[in-house]
Prior knowledge:
Layout: E1 13-14, H1 24-32, E2 37-39, H2 47-54, H3 56-66, E3 72-76, E4 84-85, E5 96-100, H4 102-114, E6 121-127, H5 128-131, H6 135-138, E7 149-155, E8 158-163, E9 168-175, E10 178-183, H7 221-227, E11 229-233, E12 238-241, E13 246-251, E14 256-263, H8 273-283, H9 289-305, H10 327-341
Parallel strand pairs: 1-11, 4-8
Antiparallel strand pairs: 2-12, 3-5, 3-6, 6-7, 7-14, 8-13, 9-12, 9-14, 10-11, 10-13
Helix pairs in contact: 2-3
Amino acid sequence: xxxxxxxxxxxxxxxxxxxxxxGAGLDALLKEAREPFVLRGLVADWPLVAAGWESARAAxxxxxxxxxxxxxxxxIGPPGHDGRLFYDADMAMNFRSGTGKxxxxxxxxxxxxxxxxxxxxxxxSIDIPSHFxxxxxxNPIDLGAREPYKSIWIGTRTRIAAHNDxxxxxxxxxxxxxxxxxxxxxxxxNLYLGPIDNTPAGRTVSLVDFDAPDLAAHPRFAEAMAxxxxxxxxxxxxxxxxxxxxxxVEGLEPFNILVNYWWRDTPAWLGQxxxxxxxxxxxxxxxxxxxxxxxxxxxxxYVFENDAALTDHIPDHARGILAPLTAESAGRLRAxxxxxxxx
Length: 343
């Protein structure tokens, strides 16, 4: 039982819109946010947005004016590719990846437009400061004291499978239209996730085709849809996606540009939870059931509960990594892990 043509979006709840004002208003909204929301016109005054309203080629010229002379990573679909950057029937990628100068990549897009061809070309998560000179300062946003990772996503019509990210995310549509379909973090079991170590772009993705969900093969996806929220962004609009929310992203126009900002409120020297999950798969998952049960209790004791009773009986100066971590103690723990993993 498959549903086609993006019709599922007509039945989904909408991501709520929030009022905003320049300056501290955005900072306050982000501080209190626990769920997604939309900010219409947040970056409508960007020069990049203005160039996009002129034409796709004007937007590409604007980006080239700021581009550094270095390779850009790009994903390219074969002839007849439908824009879904995903797996093929053998669970290999259905696109090829490479690098090239931005001018050459854009020249290929220009040529396809001239010939009326629909090609899939996608530059995903390009670090802005390292690949562009002054693009971020010419198109600013006030995120208060946050020091975000700034990236840009450039491409033709694309569909990016539902995935999540550890940081909070503010995604700004600079050109074209972007459709986001969002799911709460607890919906992971209903999204039918694929492999962890073989992914299109580094994050585990849903194997459900949102253009034609097969509810016979993926029956729990119906529950995910009941919890989903959707929004279409026009140029200048933005959506806030909290940490760990699943999001399926579509570039709906022949040419689309998205700029996003990732940040965490926790210190940068803390470890990445995904790394801990991978290590747990290596060290614990395949143990006998009774041993796994013991380790589950230990994880609860040391990690998830972590209450005062854990260390009350240990002198303050002797608690080591059981005390709240600092940059120094985290560094020592990381060095210890590297030594043990290299044996």
